[in-house]
Amino acid sequence: PYTDNARALSEMARVLRAGGVLILKIHHPRYYLTEAARAVSALSPLAFVHAARVLLAGVVYHVTGRQPRTRLVSTETFQTEAMLRRELARLGLKIRREMPDSNPLSPSYVIEKES
Predict the structure, then answer these.
(1) Coil, helix or strand for 26?
(2) Is residue 3 classed as helix, strand or coil in its secondary structure?
(3) Strand 21-25 relative to strand 93-98, pairing
(4) What is the pLDDT of residues 19-61, one digit of tens each?
(5) How many Cα atoms are found within 13 Å in the side-chain-facing hemisphere of 74?
(6) Total-model pTM
């Protein structure tokens, strides 16, 4: 959630050989919705604002295809499987499967470079 996703995925694709695999863990929007709910329960306005900014950044990212890089919107963002598939397809990578021990708040995927 803290990286420039396009640059990070591009570099992973560059160094991964054809048929190679990598494990990638993401923060799903459910992660930040859970964080926002916890912040409300704990009466922690700063934690709530953080979660809300990340959710806003994720919406901007999913709508525009570009991660926001401003102070108003968090540079941290969430990811979804659909968005990940879109980003990976541009680089010749694909999701082979979700890891069996994956957490719905932060799922892990096996990514493969197409031959």
Answers:
(1) coil
(2) coil
(3) unpaired
(4) 999 999 999 999 999 999 999 999 999 999 999 999 999 999 9
(5) 20
(6) 0.84
C-alpha 24/C-alpha 21 separation (Å) is 10
CA atoms within 13 A on the CB side of 49: 6
Radius of gyration for the chain, computed over Cα atoms and rounded to the nearest angstrom: 15
The secondary structure of residue 70, as a DSSP letter, is: S
Which residues touch 92 (CB under 8 Å, ≥6 apart)? 13, 113, 114
Give the model's pLDDT for residue 76.
86
Locate tokens 């890089």: which residue?
A: 69
Tell me whether strands 93-98 and 108-113 are parallel, antiparallel or unpaired. Answer: antiparallel
Long-range contacts of 39-45 (CB under 8 A, 24+ apart): none
The amino acid that residue 8 corresponds to is A
| Helix orientation angle between 29-41 and 45-64, rounded to the nearest 10 degrees | 160
- Return all residues near 73 (Cβ < 8 A) that are at least 6 apart: 53, 56, 57, 60
Question: Residue holding tokens 């525009």?
Answer: 64
How is residue 17 annotated by DSSP? P
